[in-house]
Automatic annotation (TrEMBL):
InterPro entries: Aminotransferase_I/II_large, HTH_trans_reg/aminotransferase, PyrdxlP-dep_Trfase, PyrdxlP-dep_Trfase_major, Tscrpt_reg_HTH_GntR, WH-like_DNA-bd_sf, WH_DNA-bd_sf
Source organism of the structure: Massilia agri
Family to which this protein belongs: In the C-terminal section; belongs to the class-I pyridoxal-phosphate-dependent aminotransferase family.
Keyword entries, A-Z: Aminotransferase, DNA-binding, Pyridoxal phosphate, Transcription, Transcription regulation, Transferase
Source taxonomy: Bacteria, Pseudomonadati, Pseudomonadota, Betaproteobacteria, Burkholderiales
Residue span(s) of domain HTH gntR-type: 24-92
Top-level taxon of the source organism: Bacteria
SMART domains cross-referenced by the UniProt entry: HTH_GNTR
Protein name: PLP-dependent aminotransferase family protein
MF terms in GO: transaminase activity
Pfam families noted in UniProt: Aminotran_1_2 (PF00155), GntR (PF00392)
CDD domains named among the record's database cross-references: AAT_like (cd00609), WHTH_GntR (cd07377)
Length: 466
């Protein structure tokens, strides 16, 4: 390892590595030397690093070499920039909480995918090819032409070739659901859903003054006869379904059931909102319900659940032009548009193949994590081997609320069934999300801790008084 020395320059301490001719890439030598200096205390948090040009001149290397070295050191969380004041040694990151989060349904970080490099490359291409003024202005038509084309490309595995004009770009699926409720229903209207369903639907419906009525379901999803009866009784405007790897039960509705529900929607003239975030993660999923009743079904596909939540981009397939315009008017009332820069990045990734590569990595990682959950939870595991979550039905001696509290006391966050109840009694179960813990070893520790907890009978938990 190269040695380090400190020299004085204009009254400031300046860190200098010593490079070896046969020591490998010079930018890595600089980054490794910096890491060693921080480890042995030669450099301390708050110490200022020399400007890049100055260090490049002293080491007789290209400026790009030093820039790459500093970028690598930032990736290792060794440095922090303070604007015009320069670059400083970062304070060590402190883990303020030991909670193992099994409650948030996010895609797992795929092994072998350099997400930071992918982000840099994608944004670089966007800035190189796009009109920067267009990236910083309003887009009121549900996305640019290229964004809608990317949406049509994203939806091709489900529907084949589509007219991009039928695709609306939205700032996430939750915004799309709320806008559809506003556009297609009136205050006081009934929305039908399964007894256990996505909590975001209930939140949007409650805020907008609509009423959710639960329709009985079995292990294949909503029961057709019960849907038809509920349509006659309640005259609903919308039916909400999440048919592929349903959140939270992980049920995938078979094709026959999808055809039956589509037929009822036609007969009863009711709109179906098909919220389908996990279709691309599933192993050989059936065709979407929208393929069986294109004029009755509005289809939503979000990138947040299969690529990364930070994109906040969803594609809505809405074939009726009049309803599409009503939807856009409703969306503008609270969200206006998807952020153009995020939409442009999503478009770049979809059209250059990066999104497909990231999706494949997420899918592979999700399957590895499901195998881990199956091995650790043994007979209690009821997953299907894909998707982002497991629906864990509990032994009779635990209630879902009890287990969630007990898990929390052990530093584990899970989501109890009550959070997903849309009416009637909730199932005695919890949802376990497998993607939100980045490190597999920590995920394994959380699942093992949860398995041990399930094997015990509940103790009395009393809150501390302070």
């Amino acid at each position: 390892m190269s040695q380090l020395r400190t020299i004085q320059d204009e009254g400031l301490p300046v860190w200098m590595p010593r490079l070896a001719r046969q020591g490998g890439p010079r930018f890595l030598q600089i980054a490794d030397a910096l890491q060693a200096a921080v480890a042995d205390g030669s450099l301390k948090p708050g110490d200022r690093l020399p400007p890049q040009r100055q260090l490049a001149a002293r080491l007789d290397v290209d400026l790009t070499t030093v820039t790459r070295a500093y970028d690598e050191a930032r990736r290792r969380q060794l440095l922090e920039g303070r604007g015009a004041r320069g670059t400083y040694v970062a304070a060590p990151k402190v883990e303020l909480t030991a909670t193992l989060d099994l409650s948030m349904n996010t895609p797992p970080p795929p092994d072998g995918v350099d997400f930071e490099d992918m982000l840099k490359q994608g944004l670089s291409q966007v800035l190189m090819r796009a009109d920067n003024e267009l990236l910083m202005t309003y887009h009121l038509g549900g996305g640019s032409d290229s964004d809608r084309q990317a949406g049509a490309t994203w939806l091709e595995p489900m529907f084949g070739q589509l007219d991009p004009a039928q695709v609306v770009v939205c700032p996430g699926a939750q915004a799309a659901i709320a806008a559809l409720i506003l556009a297609l229903t009136e205050p006081g209207d009934v929305i039908l859903a399964e007894p256990t369903t996505y909590p975001g639907l209930r939140a949007a419906a409650t805020q907008l003054g609509r009423r959710i009525v639960a329709v009985e379901a079995d292990r294949h999803g909503m029961l057709p006869a019960m849907l038809e009866e509920a349509c006659r009784q309640h005259k609903p405007r919308l039916v909400y379904l999440n048919p592929t790897l349903q959140n939270p039960t992980a049920i995938t509705m078979p094709e026959r059931r999808r055809r039956e529900l589509a037929g009822i929607a036609k007969r009863c003239d009711v709109r179906i909102v098909e919220d389908d975030p996990y279709w691309l993660l599933a192993d050989a999923p059936p065709p979407p319900i929208a393929t069986f009743a294109p004029e009755q079904v509005v289809y939503i596909s979000t990138l947040s659940k299969c690529l990364t939540p930070g994109l906040r981009v969803a594609f809505v397939l809405l074939r009726d032009p009049r309803e599409r315009e009503r939807f856009l008017v409703a969306l503008r009332s609270f969200a206006l548009m998807a952020a153009p820069l995020s939409a442009a990045l999503a478009t770049q990734w979809i059209l250059d193949g990066s999104a497909e590569g990231l999706l494949a990595g997420v899918r592979k990682e999700a399957r590895l994590r499901h195998r881990m959950a199956r091995d650790i939870l043994a007979g209690r595991y009821s997953g299907l081997g894909d998707g982002l979550h497991v629906w864990l039905e509990l032994p009779a001696y635990w209630s879902s609320a009890q287990l969630a509290r007990a898990a929390d006391s052990e530093g584990i966050a899970v989501t109890p069934a009550e959070a997903f109840a849309s009416g009637g009694e909730s199932v005695n179960a919890v949802r376990i999300s497998l993607g939100s813990i980045k490190d597999r070893a920590r995920l394994r520790a959380g699942l093992q801790r949860l398995s041990h907890l399930l094997a015990r009978r509940p103790e009395s938990f009393s809150a501390a008084v302070v």
